[in-house]
Structure prediction request, 531 residues.
Amino acid sequence: MSLVSEPFIVDAHVHTGYLNLFFSPEVDAKSLLARMDALSIQYAVNLGSSRNLLVSSAAEMEKAEAEFRESGKRLFYCGFFDPRRATEDLTTLDRAARGSGFKGIKIHPSFCGVAGDDPRYEPVWQFAAERALPIVSHTWSVSSYNPAQALSTPERFERFASRFQSVRFILGHAGGRGEGRLQAIRMAQEHANVFMDISGDVMDRHFLERMAGEKVEQKVLFGSDYPWLDQRAHLCGVFLAGISLSAKGMILRENARRVFDLP
Amino acid sequence: MTDRLIAQIASERRARVESLDLFDANLWLGEPDYFPLAEPIAANGLREAMGEYAIRGGLVSHWDGIRLSPQDGNQALRDVDGAFPPDVWTVWVGLPLAPGEQGPLPATGAAHPRMRGVRLFPRIHHFQLSPWVVGSLCEWCVSRRLPVFLWHTEIDWEGLHGLAAAFPELTIVLDTQWQKILYHNRDLFSLLDACGNVLVESSNLLGQDFVAWVVRHWGARRILFGSFLPAADPYSAIGMILDADISAEEKALIAGGNARAIVRQVRP
Prediction:
């Protein structure tokens, strides 16, 4: 496995830690760094371990900060907010925000069982607005085989994204498959503060060409969802897409640097 | 500087993709369900679409076989037979041989000379994937050395294991679409371990290091490159092969060698 030369890519959507839903041969920060080195990836944004998505804790934030330091400041990270334990999680986030690798907040309505438009998310949008932090959410389409995905469809976030225009909001997985993806594209077009990452298993043919054609290439971030999915899966498609070199540069690096305020 | 670097990487990668000599086990004609952004491909547009990704041959199926009926899909493939590029072969949708249904189906009448595989959709078409239901069709496929293709969304793992064990000479290709195979990989890898006649198609085999994992444990002959074109971007599956930690010979088998060998051995 090799790409080339000096690292310059930013992977805006990774995780570390054990997985409960399926098997992955490697799940730790050290393995991730080795992959990044081989693929010319300079920085990654860790959106949390499975454990942190299920039971967010100060200890998980401390672990993420330690991984950030041990990685030579390459593995930035986000904290997690679960509206069912808002007070506790905001306290954890407030403490974590003092860490030098902390770069934003992840929410996951499908995991939490609370829809993205539920008023119980308001405190975290307020928190992000006050601290100029981005929010990343898992997003997907309504799914016949996974009903919880209906809680994370892109349009559910529209009310908050419109109200908190200073908060940079990233639609993780670009709305997933089908209708969700169409909604994600629409929201990225209509809202200056809404972005999409391409992590996940769904990469439509000519998706990037379409984004460039509709002048939203500055809204698309490369992301892999490691260790759920392989960083190699979508890198090839970005490099060989029929879009300009500057658009590829934005997707691979500059958009994530801007959104997450990376070096 | 980044522009120059990206241009250099893109150029180098394109050359490497060309050298893979890709044969695609998962091409589709017609209007895809579930993927509203997909641009349907007609038979006379297949050469151009494949050429965009340096795909030189392949096995093509038709969405009408799912959306309308197996017979409609098979007839649609037969209708455009003259428009296929060289080294493109068809995969027909099959049904159980009993009760015996009308229309163009595998094992009823003369086999179509371009047919190189049979697809089954047990859930969509309402039948059990059990030897007592599809056994006679499987025997016919074995006699012609035709592989059977199945979406993982169409099977239960116990049933597929039972079928693979009952017909050890039948080549079964498990497609990784149209949903994530990821959530089923504990079953998938156990099945590959248990049944040497099961192969996996690669269009959604995008989990961390999965290509190298399969090769290391069960050998490169167990994966067939598939793009799921036009619903998916072929570069996802291509990238997984291109950058896998496996030898050039193993990449060549996955990229096209395995599928071409299967196509060659079919006795229409």
Observations:
- Chain B has one domain: 15-265.
